[in-house]
Each structure stands twice: as C-alpha cells, then as structure tokens.
Amino acid sequence: MSLRDVERKIYRREENQGRKRALSYGAVDPHEAEENPFAPASFEAKKNEANAVWIKEDEEKKREKRKKIKKIALLSAVGLIVATGLVWAAIVIRKTSFSEDQVKLSISGPQKVQSGDLVSFDIDYQNLNRASLREAVLHINFPENFKPEEALGFESEGPNSRKYNVGTVNGRDSGKVVLKGKFFGPKDLLVYVDVSLEYSSSNFSSKFKTESKTGIFISSSPLFLETSGPQSVVAGNLVSYSIKFRNSGQEEIQDLKIKVDYPGEFSYISSEPIPSKDNNVWYVGGLGAGQDGEIKFNGTLDGRDNETKKFKIAIGEFGIDGNFIAYNESESNIKIVTSPIKIEFTINDKKNNINVNAGDFLGFKIKYLNTSTIGLRDVVLVEEFKSPILDYAKIDMSQTKGSLDSSNGTITWKAADIPGLKTLNPGEGGEISLYVPVKSIIPVKDSGNKNFAFNAVAKLDSIDISTPEGSNKMVFSNAINVKLNSKLGLSSQGYYNDSEIKNSGPIPLEIGKETTFTMHLKLMNVSNDLTDAKVTMALSPGVKWKNVFSPENADVSYNERSNELVWNIGTMPAGIGILTDPRELVFQIGVIPNQNQVGKFVNLLGKSVFSAEDVFTKQKLEAILEGKDSNLLEDMSVGNQGQVAQ
C-alpha cells in the first residue's frame, strides 16, 4: 500500500470516529455533512462535538478528584480516631498505674502526754499504685516544745524540722519511720506534729506531695511553778514576789531559766539571786529529780485606781530564734489602789534606767505631793541608793539637809530638816535635790568585781497613809536602775633601747638620717567585758611603718595612703590592766628629720582612739590619746636627746 493510501485510510478512520462522537452528542446528520462538507451546520456540529468531549473529560476529572478527596478524608478520620484512641488508652493505662490518691501517709502516736516523757510516733507511708515512687522524702515539722532524739537516717532541716530520705517505694509497697522525743510545755497546751511525703512517680516527671498531721495534748508538767505576792497594792508602792520551782519528774532537766514578764509601770528594784539578763531572767541550769529552788524580786508598781496588773512567770529555755519556750507557766494578778501621795524621782532628769561613767556626778531630784483630801502628819522621806561605786563622802546636800547613813546607803529627811514635813496638807508638796558622785577609781579586787549596778528609789511614810487593809505603809517612787559603764585606758611609750625590737640610727636625731623607735601601746579595761574592741592610730607625717610588731599573731593592718594603723582586738574581759597585765602591742617606726625640725622634738604618733562596746551596758565606749613625740622620758638613754641636732 502506498503512502498516500495509508494517509487516506487514517484520515477516514479519524473522520468516522468524529462523526460517531458528534452523533452521540446530537450532532447533524453525517449524510448531510458529506453532501455539503463546507456548510455552516457542519462546522457547528464539529464544534459542539469537541465541546461535548471536553465537558465530559472535565466532569470525569472532577469525579475522580472528589473520589480522592473523600478517600483522603476517610483515611484522615480513621487515623485521627486511631490516634485519639491510643492517647486515651495511654492516659487510662497511666492513670490506672499511678494516682496521687493511692499514696497514703499517716502519723500515729499518743494524743495525750506528760511534759518530759519520752514518746514515739509511727509515720506510715503506702504506695497502692502499680507504678513505683521515686526520690521520696519525708519532711517532719514539730513545735519548739518537742525535743527529738537523734536517730539514724534523720537529717536536720532547721531547729524545728527533720527530713528522712525514703528513696524508692515500689508499687504495692509500704514502709514506716519512727520518730522519738520529748515534749516540754505547760499543762493543757495543744501542739501539732506535721509530716509530708514529697516524691515523683516512675511514669510522671512531676513532683507530688502527700500530707498528714496529729495533735498532742500536754496534760501535765514535771516542773512545778508557784508564784506568791500581794493581791492589791497602793499605786506607786513596793511589791514583793516569791517564785518557787521544783522538778517532780524522774530525770534531770538541763539549761532551765525563769523569765518574768512584768506588767506596765512596774519598776524593778532588786532580787535574790541577781538576774542573769535584763532584770527579768534568772539562770537555773540543770534541775535534778526532786530538786527545787526559789527566786525573790521586788519593785514598785504604779497604775490607775482599780486597775488589775498581771505578772506572768515561766520556766523553760530560749529557742534558737530568741523566743522563750515555756515548760510551765504561772500568773499572778494584783489590783491597784490609788496612793494619797504622788512621789516622782529622777537621776540626771531621767525617770528610767541610766548608764553612768566613773567620775560622774549624779543629780538626784525628789518631788512629792499630797493628792489626798486629808493632811499627812509627821512625814518621813527616805532615799535609798546603796553601791560600792558611789563616793558617799562627797555627797552634796547643801540645798536640803538630811541624815546620811553610808553603811545602808540611805538619806533620811524629817520635819527637823524640812519643816513642811510636820504636816503635809492636801495639795501641798516639795522638792529635794542632791548630788552623788561616782568614784573615779572603781574598786576592782577580783574577777567577781564586774558589772556594777544599783537601784535607787525614794519612799515616803506617814501615820496617815494606809493600805486597803488598814495598816500603815510607805509609798514608793519609781525605781531607777543605774549601770556603770566600763572604764577604758590607753597609753603609749617609746624606746630607742628596747628589749624586744632592736633599733638603729643616730641619737640625737640628724637631718636626712633615719632613726627607728619601738612603740609600746597598752590597753586597760576596768569593770565590764568588751566586744568589738580596736585601736585606730595615726602615724605622724614623715613617720614610716616598719612592719615589725609583737605579738606576731596580732590582727594589725596598716594603710600607707592614710598612714593609719588599726589594731583589731575583738573581745576583752573585765580587769585587763588591773587584775592582769595590760593588753599590749609593740611595733617599730622610723623617722627622717627635716631642716625645719632642727632643735625640736619630732612628732611620732598622732591621735589614737581605743573603742569598744560594753557587753553589760550595751554602750559604745572610747578612750582617746593625743599625739606623742620623740621626747622619750621613759627611755633613760634618750631623754631630751630626742631632739634633732643642729
């Protein structure tokens, strides 16, 4: 077959297929098209035939696309359902393997105890989960009244807390920790012990906590405490109290103290024994089984008519935070009755406690007034101020004469001294002034002569003054507690020929040549312990620090820029320089004279300041020493040869 025949045959096949498609879409009759192949209807038929083919193909594509979308959506929905199911399954599985509610913690023990008895608490923990607990730690918090016994495994987290590292607690497992100790507290005190278990689960990274607590009622205390005193008192009058204590238990109790909370307007005067702190704390120490003791104190109490004042007494100890932990308590109430006499007492114009120094003059002033509606006959006024630090021989009573009894430390005024005291009518009063010197040299003979203090109080008596019970009684003023500050001493000596440090250079001094000297700085502390003690000293211009000193372990620092020397001492006991040798620092300095110093002594040391805090009075103290030059009279080999040669 020729090429032309092949083309013709192919053409006819395509033409016939086109006719068939056109007819299937309602095209014109093919016979008509063949009769007039170039007629317009024939072209329109072919066009419609082509459009129909495209439309059909497009619809088929859309149907295929919609099928694919539905298939993808169906697969996605199925995947989401499967994933959600897996997540919920995992949650359900983990939930059933661990729940906080399935971790149990409890503390059990006696609900009622006697103070001082040894008690035991069982701390039980239980893991009901299938999953194990990791890094489990027990935390135990208890009141200050509880003293735990030392036990293996317990670690301190503070003064009132302990912890116990449990570690891993397997699923369906449990354990127990035993805590032992003693409660010390007053009767009818309710206290609590709290426990908590912190942990994480083997299938959770979060931290969890389970808690429990128990209450303990202290039913009684082995420490007996009884306070006795008056039920009523005239305002401004003297009151005396007795505190009796006893250990009725079977074991010794250590480090006990008794603390009294005074009511407002109470002025402490004295006690037996002397308080160990703040006039209201007494150190008892160890109190063995069956041992007892007694403390007596007195003072004046003021207040409004019919006002009730309360004294609160406790036996126990101080906690780490400084709060007092009571092992037993007692209270005493007293009613105030207005006094017919108003009496006011001041020292150096102060009505409260004061601190004084050796050599001071104390200005005493007593004011009194009859506030009653009746006259008071034969009034007697007495001032009490007994102390070894007072110089009674030099008391100045030039303004008002009185009778001094130095053995008892009293001055008494009667009508013979002050005529107005014969009859003190309603609304009448008076004023007495005197001056009492403090000794310049304080009598320190042994280690017990320290922390000097005394109480001063004025009291007035008349046969017409009565208490509510009807008996005659004195009326007291406010009491003033006077504390003596320690006295500091500071001195310096210089030597060319010294036994401790060898010196060199010309004597007399020569211009342009260095001469060294050894300086001895000595400190004295008289009557109270000191803390934060130090000496600050300025070396004179042109003087050089040679960095040679003794003792070698002394805390000494030198600032070359300021030419200042600081000697840090820290604590110093009372009696240094009196009962013992002075505290001493020995050091070497060097000086090179200039021409303007010819024929003169060279300044070696500038101003020196010895400062410290008094432990007893809490006051900042200072002793000051002015400068020192090369006129070293204490060194016989130098004398006035300390001048610069011409």
Bulk shape: flat
Q: Mean of residue pLDDT?
A: 85
The unreliable regions are 20-35
**Which percent band covers the strand fraction?**
over 45%
CATH topology of the largest domain: Immunoglobulin-like
Helix content: 10-25%
Quick one: how many beta strands? 41
CATH top level of the largest domain is Mainly Beta
Query: What is the count of DSSP helices, taking H or I runs of 4+ residues?
Result: 3
In total, the number of domains comes to: 5
Kindly report how far apart the N and C termini lie. Answer: 153 Å
CATH architecture descriptor of the largest domain = Sandwich
Profile the largest sheet. Answer: 7 strands, mixed
C-alpha Rg (nearest Å): 51 Å
Sheet/helix structural class: mainly beta
